Amino acid sequence: MSIKISHKKKISDKTIKNYVLFTNEDFVISGLKNIYLSKNSAQINKTIKSNKTKKNDIISFNLNSDQKIILIKIKKNQTPTENEKKGANFYNFIKSNLLTNLTFLDKNIYEIQAKNKSFIDEFLHGLQIKSYEFDKYKTKKEIIDINIVISFTKKIPSTNKNNRFFSLLEGTNFTKDLVSEPGNILHPDEYARRILKLKKIGLKIKVYNKNQLKKLGMGALLGVGQGSIRGSYLVTMEWNGIKSKSKPLAFVGKGVCFDTGGYSLKPARFMEDMTYDMAGSAAVVGLMKTLALRKAKVNAVGVVGLVENMVSGNAQRPGDIVKSYSGKTIEVLNTDAEGRLVLADALTFTEKKYKPKFIIDLATLTGAIIVSLGSEYAGLFSNDDKLSKQLLDVGEKVDEKLWRMPLHKNFDKLMNSKNADMQNINYVGGAGSTTAAQFLQRFILNKTPWAHLDIAGMAFSKYGGALNSGGATGYGVRLLNKLIEDYYE
Predict the structure, then answer these.
(1) In 26-159, which residue ranges form alpha helices assigned H by DSSP?
(2) What is the pLDDT of residue 32?
(3) Tell me, what CATH number does 81's domain have?
(4) Which is catalytic among the residues 161, 194, 266, 404?
């Protein structure tokens, strides 16, 4: 399904199929006397009166045999996210009613935008986010073109704000595309190639291959991928939006393109879902694309570790000991606790090479976080209260919520090993997500402010949500983009 949004001046009343009008909570239409429909105001008001008792936020009725009126109730002082959800709800309405040509009238919009200049952009942004579908591999596609026209009578609205919404949509949908791809298509080799294509929008990208990683000493990352016939990579993406030599903001993502669990094999049931075990990395890539497209006034770096965790004669065994980039040794007691091994090397590399202002990593790291928080919150673990507060704040604003979880030395010691500096799982039992985070914290060597987001319950939804229709959610892109907008630009 494709959506085309355009601005047109002086549209003939006779050519409009579906009028879309915003009303207040009492279904009073803003600017009714000043728009094309003034001659029908009596009829419209009569129809509204008969429908006011309905609890629906959207009502529609025929103006005549050829034209329909659609009324959308807008509450006073709606937040940007509430405006987006209204747009998403409207998408459901037009899809279920098979409406393909819709006209918004500027004088009606201006009444609302007098209080919120971004209202219509937020509304349409939510509509577009909700419309995402991944039908790339369907041979028979339902092709429906939805044409949305913003009619204006005086001057065309500014498009400066639109660039921000366009960039965020592009970045979020790119993340969804990556997460939605099957493992036989988006293996590490192909993933690295797709990231390289982002050079054309201004990102500086470097791909470290298996031989280069071996020379760097990234034994933890390489151990995860050694059972696959595909390559293992670390990819860096740099965006320099300001000329100053200020410390960059750093974002690190787990990119396990498919996770069998290795020799600690996962159950067959639902293993197909492990194509989205690279969702943390996809969020980082989508964020970097967003920043580049909107020319964000910030210096930022994205780092992703790309591997495939497979079973073969060369695969990592339970009991193996590997040496990480930090120099610390790790006893691999469970090959299905692999994401933390990838992140271990990526975190230390990012801190050492870029000396960033902070590091935020994202990963579908543990099933335990789903037991704790379900699909309502991602888990937040951090060594920094200020960064945590900022993340919690923007999470509420964009409805990508976080819940802060504990870190403590008593959890940390559970990761000590008799045979190496540490082990990759806690065999005592319990606190699976926290002990995984404690493991990661050991690879932040210079007390850099750091936050770990365990997004296992948020990256993919079988049922959909307010802004998603099911499948890949793109979780993390909107969250981190808002963090940068509110606190670091």
Answers:
(1) 41-51, 80-96, 106-113, 119-130
(2) 57
(3) 3.40.220.10
(4) 266
